[in-house]
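User: Structure tokens for this complex, please. No commentary.
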Amino acid sequence: MPGGELHDVFDGIEAQVPEGLAEHLRTAALIDHHVHGTFSEDIDRSTFEFSINEGSNDPVPPWMTNFDSPLGLSIRRWCAPLLGLPARADAEDYWKRRCEFGADELATTMVRAAGVTHWIVDTGFKGDQITTHQRLAELAAGHSSEIVRLERVAEDLLDGGTSPEDYPAAMRAALASAAADPTVVGTKTIVAYRTGFDIDWTRPADADVVDRARALAARPGSARIDDPVLISFGVHEAAAHGLPIQVHVGFGDRDLDLHRCDPLLLLPLLRAMPPVPVLLLHCYPFHRQAGYLAQAFDHVNFDVGLSINYLGTRSSGLVAEALEVAPFAKQLYSSDAFGPPELHVLGSVLWRRAMGVVLGDWIRSGDCAEADAIRIVDMIGAANAQRVYGI
Amino acid sequence: MPGGELHDVFDGIEAQVPEGLAEHLRTAALIDHHVHGTFSEDIDRSTFEFSINEGSNDPVPPWMTNFDSPLGLSIRRWCAPLLGLPARADAEDYWKRRCEFGADELATTMVRAAGVTHWIVDTGFKGDQITTHQRLAELAAGHSSEIVRLERVAEDLLDGGTSPEDYPAAMRAALASAAADPTVVGTKTIVAYRTGFDIDWTRPADADVVDRARALAARPGSARIDDPVLISFGVHEAAAHGLPIQVHVGFGDRDLDLHRCDPLLLLPLLRAMPPVPVLLLHCYPFHRQAGYLAQAFDHVNFDVGLSINYLGTRSSGLVAEALEVAPFAKQLYSSDAFGPPELHVLGSVLWRRAMGVVLGDWIRSGDCAEADAIRIVDMIGAANAQRVYGI
Amino acid sequence: MPGGELHDVFDGIEAQVPEGLAEHLRTAALIDHHVHGTFSEDIDRSTFEFSINEGSNDPVPPWMTNFDSPLGLSIRRWCAPLLGLPARADAEDYWKRRCEFGADELATTMVRAAGVTHWIVDTGFKGDQITTHQRLAELAAGHSSEIVRLERVAEDLLDGGTSPEDYPAAMRAALASAAADPTVVGTKTIVAYRTGFDIDWTRPADADVVDRARALAARPGSARIDDPVLISFGVHEAAAHGLPIQVHVGFGDRDLDLHRCDPLLLLPLLRAMPPVPVLLLHCYPFHRQAGYLAQAFDHVNFDVGLSINYLGTRSSGLVAEALEVAPFAKQLYSSDAFGPPELHVLGSVLWRRAMGVVLGDWIRSGDCAEADAIRIVDMIGAANAQRVYGI
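Assistant:
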């Protein structure tokens, strides 16, 4: 199936982005420091609609389509040409054309256009539906590393027969093994989805952990780590093993209590923990709070991934707000793409475009030199991730 | 008294709004889905000043005037020409000229300039000072529907002699009657002003409702529904009767605890209730949170009415932020005007202008087609309200 | 050491700011209503880096420099020419050149370029490292007044031997004396750093104050007012003496719990206190909430000082958001500069520039007249401070 080409990411706004910066942003090699695989099988329209709405857990109602959203507009604008259609093709035309591509062909076409050379992949969620990190790297002709989910590691141990008494040692052994694995560059916690951030972040004693594991084991069904002590234990142990810790913050599906995922509620943890890198992910609508924390703590970093995709053309405003108080050494690029490979390429296109708009404005108004802007792009696009994850 | 004409809503920013979109926005017929009447009598300066400050409950102090605010500037800019004065006439000239008009003449001049064909009117507040919904429709040469306030319905029942024991059934009968009345298209709760959103949203048992009604009846004076169980009962019963529910969210006068009106605190209700349409009103400064909820729940919709008027020229930024994550099918237009008819026309002028600025930018940068922008205008301006309220 | 000249504050954005407004903003005499002294001695690089990061309490790590931040870019852009360097000089060149100046010479060069005629100085913090308010006025060739910190006054009394029993009367005497001192124009509370705003704001009885003072006196070491009753006592007494009260709100170092410094949490105090002027300082990222309170309460005013410096070129967006709902009579200018005199001049430069951008846009789009914009500048830049502090 013949695909097409990505349009110039500064199409329509050429006058806003000074040429040297534009040229650099068009080709800069990115590290996507938080991403998932692409769908490994063909999907139907209903799955696609579901996959371009972050918040909902329902099928899209008959009286609307998620193409009628900022993300939907961006898919039509940027991904249609990749499938050989005109930019801003109708939703129906887009969907029809998309169905002519197989899952792998689609993934290859899209992810290669992202200009990402290294994908740091969170492998802890719905792994059966999406490609492995190795396969993503293959499709993208790039490199990959792995992020292990702390709650998933814990659940696998308990479901695998580890006794409550053995659990603390087994968790430590698993993290030591992760720390020794050159493929694994960090961990992630989804405490946002399990308890919210307003829990007691004191490092728990092993005896308390065993008690909680015992209570969990007494519940029917497979293990689900939703006990604050067990979550806190995982985070503190990851830190003790020197592993970077990604934290889902803010914007996510409606299972979480968004107001309990304000990153400021992590202050007790951030103050008390060893200074391993903490990566606040997504953060919308608390991205200003995240930037504040990244300024206040040497070990705290953040991104506005996921939100960039969902805000579509409005992501320029978000990227501008993310460049308010944090030092440039403390912000990273990510797409948080999961499933449709449109998300893998859009994250990159929209970020490059937004950085061009925002930094272009800074240059044109004389507030920074073009060389400064290019350096900021390189820090956020790759260098900070290299430092944080040691890659 | 000869009035004047509304200036072109894109005056001064013609180059920012592509002509097809501009032409459409100039004439698109709007549904104002949340509005109140206009003052039925002439008012004095002090009442006018008070009426153009949403937050305060005091007379304006002698050392200032509310004309010196974003809303004041917008009144001088857009309403002065409607009174036959030059745009940006002085505050004193504006006031002097305004006094030459009678209340009806003023209302006719202003509300007809709004380009609103259907007014959905909240009739539950200070009904003696403002026009009825029928009279507003007459002044505007348009149509109207009614929104009944749940707390007002409840208070009227109790003040009218309904016994606590009969109250649950009486409330159900009143809501059944509202649901059957073709004039009534929905309900509204002002829980924001009574308890804040952080209450127990479990659907209460009738016995509990009777107990609380009894406690209320034992208090001297007329009934004031400020008991969380009674409020929750009203909301759940409205939902059970299939009635759309408007919720005052965020920006309002200082009687409310603004931080307890963050719409995220409604999550327990939104998750548990039957999926009748919920309309989050105003929402500033929590409009990003409201947009998130509108994405996450099929039955949740929102607007940024009221705030648009108060932000004046800055409403373009607000409208832009309101177009961040919610699908376009989930946002509605409203003015929330109450009292001075300036607010009825300004809501419309500022919204049209802001949509022109924001969507015009999207078109000029290639991020959407002009036809898409026009469709978005029609969805938010009228079609979504038609779907939600069945009009 | 020959310095240089401040570049035109509208350099690079001349076309955005109508000439009459630009000319006025270039020369308008400001009152900096919340500021501290400049460093009285030469400082090393590490102290400088530390002093241009508000949130952190650590030395800057070796892998980064705070020059790589919005504030750092603004220092290079605006302060380099004041030292005779080209705009946007390299960080290393800037530092090298800066070291050739003595502390006084540096201070004189910088603070005189701010165009501030009156400095209202908070003298309650690290007074040994920075100039007194009189010395700042001398260096700046301007005037100064003093703000006394309530917690500092209280601690000085207790450390000076005042008994718990005598403490209420002694505090009242100290405040009466402050109120009678023509140099002192107001007070400040740092409740943000001691308890957060979510405390009981009921005016405490003297007996309770004595009890708490007794408990405090029983603790070893010098007094630290972190008891909510003692803090509330100080605030209520300041109000009873008719003294304006500045409140640190939002953005500050990581010792505070930022989410507990949301100004909305002050509602119980604002509703109950006598209406002496309250000045909400800094406010980021809660500046919209602060603007709301300034609209809702006649006695509440606010600024976005401190944040303007830290946001650098992005401060235009912040200033725009600060001009959303509050009447123009309720906002003030401040820099909150402390230490490096770069902060004293930058606060002024960035505010003038941001006001030019925002109000220039309002004028160009016809939303206000140039004379209105100039009046808004004068209100926020000086007149409101004159009214509030009686100077």
